[in-house]
Design the sequence.
């Protein structure tokens, strides 16, 4: 595709969901915006895919944290997003053959918790209170420029606050849970939730921060007393009908309705600069487009180390820090076409079998299981017993698979980007897929009888097809090393870069990855503040000087 013009107010490199969100807010403020996306569909990892003829899905499974403010502003419902709300929302198969279920009704979940861990229920609620209190004390909104770690630490006023800070930022989730709980099942469940911080293990310093995400999000907006984000052990608030692709499609439509132009199947090869400022981009077609502002939805490493036509604009110290930022992706995707309903081992009736098939599953039945899965990854081996997050959306939404068939979409950890030996070729992928299916069979009894087709994506595929650096699913881990003012690295956390007029708007900046839209929203807000009244030259990047 070719852009219709050679000059825009803003060009956005990459049409992931964050690029679409940023484009919407800029266009809503009257800017002429071009989004350049290398793939045939906008939406990045949320873009619709046809895995097999008639089976529709996406790389992502659920919008567990899509920001309600953005959903409303973009009128995504008007543009076709509706939700199915299975109940329970999540099933967590246990090591003893039973399973824990996260229900929409808090009381029902509490009853399940009492069966699972009768001595730990009060401690469980104390843990929720701990994270909600701690988020309040940090006083950080996900919509504000993130404070530095030093500023966060300074907000701690009492020895208790300081101890909490040290425990969350420097301690690990295994010790945190050992201090508070006795049930191995409940520890496994909460440890698995905190692994949302990235490619981490229960013993990783800072891993408790994974449980801080919902409390921080709650803190940042208007939350009702029964806001689902208060409910830690439940899954997504809903499954978009037609799959996550419907969110990407609605975002694209919302942006286009505001006049955004989206140029598909076109790569940005270079970000062009003149003096100290960005002036536009060169496309794979060879065309050059000029713009007052360039925003990048790509990993900050790609943006500043690979795409800039003048690398000398990045001060040495910053370039070194960015260069050494660890990515080391570990996510793998297994998609299965099924000719029957997957039956959970723990189901005690047909009704329950259907309920469990309809909701998300998380499989990592003990804390040790998670640690061992990560150990394999650490040493360059695909996990022998991987952590699994799966969903069969066709159970509640038959439109995503042919009649009588099902689509199971499994997010798998860990598949190290860099293997100790060999490469991510068809044989390695097939071998790891077989390991995943053996693991699924531990809790879905009939899985091997109902598979009719399968497709896999390795971290190397994610890098090649979506531009994810080393296949990292979040554009970088979200431990304290890579959160708040450290995301992606000090001096780059506030959306500006050392190149005037060049901004970061993807998951590599605060508040980080998953499908929230917030980095895109925050970056657009920053651009609008910096450029209102054509004051673009007033943009002063908060980057220390060279060296
Ligand atoms: C296997 C897997 C499963 C996941 N599951 C979930 C889930 O269920 N729920 C959830 O919330 N999150 C999930 N995530 C994480 C989530 O997908 C990401 O954090 C999020 O989609 C990142 O959004 P983004 O807009 O910042 O970037 P991206 O989605 O990475 O978009 C970047 C875009 O830039 C394009 N691009 C790259 N280079 C160029 C170039 N040179 N020129 C033009 N375009 C370019 C890419 O094609 C892409 O469209 C998952 C990730 C993976 C890998």
Sequence:
């Amino acid at each position: 595709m070719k852009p219709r013009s050679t000059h825009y107010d803003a060009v956005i490199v990459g049409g992931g969901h964050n690029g679409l969100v940023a484009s919407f807010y800029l266009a809503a403020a009257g800017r002429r915006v071009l989004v350049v996306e290398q793939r045939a569909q906008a939406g990045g990892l949320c873009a619709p895919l046809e895995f097999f003829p008639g089976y529709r899905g996406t790389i992502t499974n659920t919008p567990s944290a899509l920001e309600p403010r953005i959903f409303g502003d973009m009128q995504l419902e008007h543009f076709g997003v509706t939700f199915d709300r299975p109940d329970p929302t999540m099933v967590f198969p246990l090591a003893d053959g039973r399973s824990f279920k996260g229900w929409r009704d808090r009381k029902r979940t509490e009853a399940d918790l009492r069966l699972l861990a009768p001595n730990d229920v009060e401690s469980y609620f104390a843990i929720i209170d701990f994270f909600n209190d701690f988020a309040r004390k940090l006083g950080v909104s996900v919509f504000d420029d993130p404070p530095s770690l030093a500023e966060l630490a300074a907000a701690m006023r009492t020895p208790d606050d300081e101890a909490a800070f040290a425990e969350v930022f420097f301690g690990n989730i295994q010790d945190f849970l050992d201090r508070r709980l006795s049930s191995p099942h409940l520890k496994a469940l909460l440890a698995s939730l905190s692994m949302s911080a990235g490619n981490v293990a229960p013993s990783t310093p800072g891993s408790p921060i994974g449980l801080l995400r919902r409390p921080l999000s709650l803190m940042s907006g208007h939350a009702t007393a029964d806001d689902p984000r208060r409910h830690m052990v439940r899954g997504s608030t809903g499954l978009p009908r037609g799959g996550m692709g419907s969110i990407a499609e609605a975002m694209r439509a919302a942006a286009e309705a505001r006049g955004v132009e989206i140029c598909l199947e076109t790569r940005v090869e270079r970000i062009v600069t003149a003096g100290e400022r960005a002036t536009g981009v060169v496309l794979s077609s060879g065309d050059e487009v000029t713009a007052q502002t360039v925003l990048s939805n790509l990993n900050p490493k790609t943006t500043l180390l690979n795409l800039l036509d003048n690398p000398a604009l990045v001060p040495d110290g910053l370039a070194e820090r960015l260069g050494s930022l660890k990515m080391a992706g570990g996510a793998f995707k297994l998609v299965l076409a099924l000719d029957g309903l997957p039956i959970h081992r723990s189901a005690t009736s047909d009704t329950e079998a259907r309920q469990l098939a309809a909701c998300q599953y998380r499989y990592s039945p003990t804390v040790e299981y998670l640690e061992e899965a990560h150990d394999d990854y650490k040493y360059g081996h695909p996990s022998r017993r991987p952590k699994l997050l799966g969903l069969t959306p066709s159970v509640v939404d038959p439109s995503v698979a042919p009649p009588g068939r099902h689509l199971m979409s499994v997010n798998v950890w860990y598949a190290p980007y860099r293997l100790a030996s060999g490469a991510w070729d068809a044989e390695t992928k097939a071998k790891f897929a077989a390991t995943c299916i053996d693991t699924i069979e531990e809790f879905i009894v009939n899985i091997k009888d109902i598979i009719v087709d399968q497709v896999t994506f390795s971290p190397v595929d994610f890098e090649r097809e979506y531009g994810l650096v080393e296949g990292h699913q979040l554009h970088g881990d979200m431990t304290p090393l890579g959160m708040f003012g450290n995301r992606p690295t000090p001096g780059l956390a506030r959306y500006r870069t050392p190149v005037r007029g060049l901004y970061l708007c993807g998951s590599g900046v605060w508040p980080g990855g998953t499908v929230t839209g917030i980095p895109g929203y925050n970056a657009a807000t920053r651009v609008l503040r910096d450029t209102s009244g054509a004051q673009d030259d007033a943009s002063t990047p908060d980057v220390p000087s060279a060296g």
